[in-house]
Amino acid sequence: LKEQGAEQVIPALALWVKKLDPSDPQFEHHRLEGLWMYQSLDVPNPALLEAVLKSKSPQARAAGARVIPQWKEQLPSALVWLESLVADENPRVQMEAVRALSEFPELKAAALALRAADRVQDQFGDYALWQTSRELAPVWLPEVVAGKFDFEGKFPRMLFAVRSAEAGPAIPALVQKLRDKQVPAELEGQLMETLGQLGGPDDLRLVFDLATSSTTPAPQAATMLSTLAEAKRKRDVQPAGDLGTLVNALKSPDAALQQAAVDCIGTWKLEALRAPVTAIAKNSESESSARIAAIRGLAQLGGEPSKQLLMTLATANDPETLRTVAITSLIPLDTANAAALTVKTLIGSKEIGTQASLINAFLQHKGGPDILAAALNDQKLPEDVAKIALRMITGSGRQEPKLTEALSKAGNIVNAPKMLSKDEMGSLVATIKEQGNAAHGELIFRRAELNCQKCHAVSGAGGKVGPDLMSVGSSAQVDYLVDSILDPNKNVKEGYQSLVVATDEGKVLTGIKVRETDTDLLLRDVEDREFAIPLKSIEELKSGTSLMPVGLVDKLTRSELIDLVRFMSELGKPGPYAVVTARIVRRWETLQPTNEIYRKLIRTSDSQVIAEDAGLTWVPVYSTVGGGLPASDVLDFTLKGRVAIADRKFGFVRCTINVTTPGQVGLKLNDASGLDLWVDGQPVDPATTLAIPFEVGVHRVTFGVNLLTRTVPLRVELSDMEGSKAQAQFAGGK
């Protein structure tokens, strides 16, 4: 039709569109096709376009939004239409409207597009707004810098635009909003991150002056100073001018502010402020957290005075935690003496945390492992200490032969993967297939001491350091699974081999590569934490080993190993360990009992504790492959009853729901008995079928579990509600 030309086609097209029957189920579709025909012939039809934009079909409205830029010269109402579409409840329509506005290089279009920042509905809309913000930056940025435009007075919109366009010249405008107390509390973290990423010395000086002002609340000032220190570490940029007024923050009674100030002093090498930091480090009456911050600050300042003081503190009659920090801080300044002090501490320490901190500090220092190995010569370590150290070496993804040999000799142990002959492997595989108990194997897999889900997810719930295991049984042979457990380095799955990075600061860092940008290499460490290394700071980069420790199953009996492998070999196969397509909760958090929580429960109520949520510590737990959370995994509280109240044994678990489109969300419970329920801190009557209205955002669903009466696992599933447009999913991960 296009080849026939507008002169021939338009009269017939206009008649065809006019005759379309609104009662026809395909009416919206046909009318949209008519609009597309006008578009392909480049013959604007504003009336038809307006009708499509008002269609009941979101697909038609979204398609219509794409047409607007092509006809914008003939559409005086274009921005009026797009204003309505940006507010559309459908995420696809909103996304197309935002992208269409990028074709209008005027301030009004930028203001309309950034309205979507008030209600970004999904990741696609987020990307569309990011792109449009960048493309329209030549329009809005000069006006923001001149103080003539502030996105209709909406700070979240301004912050989104500045972050998207990486608009450094707009930083003073953001700082002014901070001065004027126009920054919502929930956005202060993003603002600080933006200032640290984009601000120049003069911009950071504005932040510094605000942080050191007596009118700035201590928590806010601490956050600002931490941002400034991070800017120095990441971009080698610090506030301009004299920074001596930082001494006032050292005198603050607020621990967080004092520690942030010490961090800045060390990072900026403010030698003039060494004396007050030294006084804090030496003062035995100071808070431990303040002394630890001061010790680390002195290490950053460096020099002979720092070295001598750290050696003194490492041998002082102070708590072991402080002495350990002094030793680890000494490593970059005097590695040999730090190694000697480390060996002495390892021999006498009973604290696993101390042992791990010391070993890890040497593993992260360039040349540290070999120097520690030399210090271990002719020394004897407790066997368990040596085992912990050897596992940390393996977990680092590196091979440190000298330190491995020294630890093995000092601890009188042999650390090597168990190698099976062909006959031994064949016998073990046969036994696994014939006698292995998969149900018992899952219990072993879930044991805290093995901590399998720290690194491996099952259907998205768990760590990301290793591959998701949900389908490993259907894709891997049994002998492969045995080898992978006994010798993790023998078969490292593609994408999960570690990288070892040496930096120009003398650090050696290890992790799994997540991605690489133009400026940073992003890695994930054995604790599942992501961290960025500036590419310009990398001196050496090489492949490491698997992050799974060798000997992780050494303490298992043969029958336990058989059951564990049998369980893994069934994952993903038809049966009880098949992939479950239902949208169920797999990652939970359980409330950790503390004396403070006990006091709150006794003095107030369960509902008030859950509603306030302040000071609560939640730890991750995971559903079984079948989708249920065993009652035994819920950390329990026990309260002795009073005269009219029975004894209580109960616990709390919660899950997170991410809602991208608002509406009624259905929840199905396998059994509602023995449960209390709160949604976003508000009590809800539990039932096996629930319909809960949710707005866009992250929501908490918390269950109180009566552990005296409830014995069945807790299984919760999302279900679609008839007539509801809600879109939601449970959060996974670690």
As for the CATH topology of the largest domain, it is: Leucine-rich Repeat Variant
Please identify which CATH superfamily of the largest domain we are dealing with. Leucine-rich Repeat Variant
> How many β strands by DSSP?
18
The fraction of residues in strands falls at 5-15%
| Distance N to C terminus | 56 Å
CATH architecture of the largest domain: Alpha Horseshoe
Total number of helical segments? 32
Determine Rg (CA atoms, Å): 31 Å
Domain tally: 5
The residue ranges in which pLDDT falls below 50 over 5 or more consecutive positions are 641-645
* Shape call: globular
Return the average pLDDT rounded to an integer.
90
Q: What is the CATH level 1 assignment of the largest domain?
A: Mainly Alpha
Helix content: 40-55%
Which class of secondary structure composition applies to the elements? alpha+beta
Largest beta-sheet details: 8 strands, antiparallel
Structure in words:
By secondary structure, this protein is of the alpha+beta class. It has 5 domains: 76 residues; 118 residues, no CATH class; 174 residues, Leucine-rich Repeat Variant; 149 residues, SH3 type barrels (Roll); 144 residues, Jelly Rolls, CATH 2.60.120. It is 46% helix and 14% strand. The chain contains 32 helices and 18 strands. Strands 8, 9, 10, 11, 13, 14, 16 and 18 form an 8-stranded antiparallel sheet that branches. Strands 6-5-4-3-7 form a 5-stranded antiparallel sheet, with no helix packed on it. Strand 3 and strand 4 form a beta hairpin. Helix 5 runs antiparallel to helix 6 and helix 21 packs antiparallel against helix 22. The chain is globular. 38% of the residues are buried.
